[in-house]
């Protein structure tokens, strides 16, 4: 259900606030006077400014210390570029080996949002030349039936990646189901062996979870320095927050994790050069939470009522965009930020899997 919309971000949806958190209301946010983050846009992407989409990089650099508008990290266009690269690689793989990468998606139940996500993944696969396979199981399926479907895809040589759409119906044990995905086809990177390797020094997972991988890819492609920087990840879920924190740490950031029991999340977040927010609460992160010049990656996808939209709602992130724009040096929009990157990383993981299984460099 969509929550109330507050166009000025003056109130966030409080339903999921943790026990120690107070709502922050009407607090004035700091205006940026000095940008401390060394913003270095690469030439690979045009960096759009919220105030002028067509400035040159040098203008952007000189504007950093005085301007009040963050640069938009354009996930939609980066994702398109990655999809184009993947499509080219798939043609090469097919011409050299005859192999076509295949992704199987298992959807249990009939949640509208999950059906939409699965449909979008299927379309994205078709567009780059990945074969997509789908198993739709009824809501009242047993755990054994889901595992049987996964086992079928584990044993199917035309399938190189398996994704079990989450959330699963409540009566199912998510752990048992995700454990049954073959580690070499675990393109979501949710298998405990993959997560375990991600968390260990000197080990590498076969796959990195798509959303955090997409966040890192955005930081890399926009030339954001990570080593030695302070990063705060808000949220610690298995699928986003926790692996995002591990990835930042692997690249030598100093990482803090803010969760629903964190006291004074605002103060902790304000220390960060890089903020990744993955909570699911609209407008939780106010401008006052952001250190001037920080880079903000907003993973949250939250529907809010909007009578002017044909659907009656629109999507916003966890971060109060209008406020954060005035403080951050760069920020991802919602939609058009991390979301498209998640899908691009899923395609990328599926292609890597096909290459690895068939020993293609
Ligand atoms: N753009 C994309 O591609 C994707 C977007 N999403 C979106 O990202 C958001 C998070 O998803 P997901 O990780 O699956 O969500 P979960 O509900 O699994 O996790 C939410 C996390 O946020 C923490 N949290 C909840 N309330 C607060 C609060 N008030 N202050 C600080 N931390 C809080 C929780 O803490 P605790 O652990 O203490 O409960 C938990 O760790 C959602 O909006 C989801 O739709 C998700 C996947 C992909
Ligand atoms: N096994 C599994 N793997 C997942 O990766 C997974 C999942 N289950 N369950 C649900 C979440 C959510 N998720 C999103 C993917 C793309 C967008 C996306 O493309 N969003 C668009 C907007 C889409 C719209 O307009 O509806 C955007 O942000 O621009 C959003 C969210 C993946 N998830």
From TrEMBL:
Pathway: One-carbon metabolism; tetrahydrofolate interconversion
Entry keyword annotation includes Hydrolase: yes
Pfam families: THF_DHG_CYH, THF_DHG_CYH_C
Record InterPro entries: Aminoacid_DH-like_N_sf, NAD(P)-bd_dom_sf, THF_DH/CycHdrlase, THF_DH/CycHdrlase_cat_dom, THF_DH/CycHdrlase_CS, THF_DH/CycHdrlase_NAD-bd_dom
Record-annotated Tetrahydrofolate dehydrogenase/cyclohydrolase catalytic domain positions: 73-188
Domain of life of the organism encoding this protein: Eukaryota
Any one of the GO CC terms: cytosol
The keyword NADP appears for this protein: yes
GO MF term set: methenyltetrahydrofolate cyclohydrolase activity; methylenetetrahydrofolate dehydrogenase (NADP+) activity
Catalysed reaction equations from the record: (6R)-5,10-methenyltetrahydrofolate + H2O = (6R)-10-formyltetrahydrofolate + H(+); (6R)-5,10-methylene-5,6,7,8-tetrahydrofolate + NADP(+) = (6R)-5,10-methenyltetrahydrofolate + NADPH
GO terms of biological process kind: photorespiration; tetrahydrofolate interconversion
Family: Belongs to the tetrahydrofolate dehydrogenase/cyclohydrolase family.
Stated role: Catalyzes the oxidation of 5,10-methylenetetrahydrofolate to 5,10-methenyltetrahydrofolate and then the hydrolysis of 5,10-methenyltetrahydrofolate to 10-formyltetrahydrofolate.
Stored HAMAP family: THF_DHG_CYH
Protein's name in the database: Methenyltetrahydrofolate cyclohydrolase
């Amino acid at each position: 259900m969509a929550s109330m919309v507050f166009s000025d971000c003056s109130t966030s949806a409080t339903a999921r606030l943790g026990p120690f958190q107070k709502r922050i209301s009407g607090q004035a946010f700091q205006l940026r006077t000095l940008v401390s983050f060394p913003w270095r846009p690469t030439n690979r992407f045009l960096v759009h400014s919220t105030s002028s989409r067509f400035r040159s990089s040098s203008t952007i650099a000189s504007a950093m210390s005085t301007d009040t508008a963050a640069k938009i990290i354009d996930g939609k266009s980066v994702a398109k570029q990655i999809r184009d690269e993947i499509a080219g690689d798939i043609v090469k793989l097919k011409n050299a080996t005859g192999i076509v990468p295949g992704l199987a998606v298992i959807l249990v139940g009939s949640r509208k949002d999950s059906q939409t996500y699965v449909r979008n993944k299927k379309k994205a696969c078709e567009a780059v030349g990945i074969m997509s396979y789908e198993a739709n199981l009824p809501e009242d399926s047993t755990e054994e039936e889901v595992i049987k479907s996964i086992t079928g895809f584990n044993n199917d040589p035309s399938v190189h990646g398996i994704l079990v759409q989450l959330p699963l119906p409540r009566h199912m044990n998510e752990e048992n189901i995700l454990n049954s995905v073959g580690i070499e086809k675990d393109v979501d990177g949710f298998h405990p062996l993959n997560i375990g390797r991600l968390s260990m020094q000197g080990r590498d997972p076969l796959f990195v979870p798509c959303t955090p991988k997409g966040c890192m890819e955005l930081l890399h492609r926009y030339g954001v320095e990570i080593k030695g920087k302070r990063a705060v990840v808000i949220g610690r879920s298995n699928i986003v927050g926790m692996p995002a924190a591990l990835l930042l740490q692997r690249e030598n950031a100093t990482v803090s994790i803010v969760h629903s029991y964190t006291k004074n999340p605002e103060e902790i977040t304000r220390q960060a050069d890089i903020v990744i927010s993955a909570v699911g609460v609209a407008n939780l992160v106010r401008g006052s939470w952001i250190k001037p010049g920080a880079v903000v990656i907003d993973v949250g996808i939250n529907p809010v009522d909007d009578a002017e939209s044909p659907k009656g709602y629109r999507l916003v992130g966890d971060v109060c965009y209008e406020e954060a724009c005035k403080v951050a040096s760069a920020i991802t929009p919602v939609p058009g930020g991390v979301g498209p990157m998640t899908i691009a990383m899923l395609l990328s993981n599926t292609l890597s899997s096909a290459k690895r299984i068939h020993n293609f460099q």
